[in-house]
# Entry
Amino acid sequence: MNSQTSNFEELNARIWQAFEQAPLDPSDPFRAPVLGTASSCCCALRTVILRKAAASERILGCYSDSRAPKISQIQINPHVQWLFYRPEERIQIIARATAAVHHMDSVARAAWDNTLLEHRLNYSSVFAPGSEISAPDSIALLHRGGRPPAPKELDRAFANFAVIVTTVEHLDFLRLNLDGNRRAAFTWNGTSFKGSWLAA
# Structure
């Protein structure tokens, strides 16, 4: 990501370009950001796979098991944060956003229909994420070296599938450098992102 610019509009565009490219490249560190949510008692962090980024809509999105704790957390408190980091460039971006959960609707169905079979199978366990199990191999997913799953079985897996779509309100960009760190903030003002420099 080329961040060598002092123009806010150009830097913001490069950030979103990096976001949009990440879901297409499995080796891109931005493809596996950290998503933070909050409950009434604590905050929770987990690495997710970035499935969608769209600058025109200010969207960052990922998939989840609908039974995962982060889904209920988002439904109670939709304010989330994303943490992206590229170690080779020492670039960190924190995105503050408002999240919405899509489950058993047209958004979820469209994402499901575009998801590879082997990825759909990840949602086929009878155990909800975080459930206590007797052994690591107790989770039996459909079609693990056996017959292909029947359509009705995959329909049941779809019931466990959710899409998290977040709308970004604020970006915090930081590039660490021995010659001097560079930090900028971008805040959505209703029509565009307004940039400002911050002390790092």
Notes: The mean pLDDT is 90.
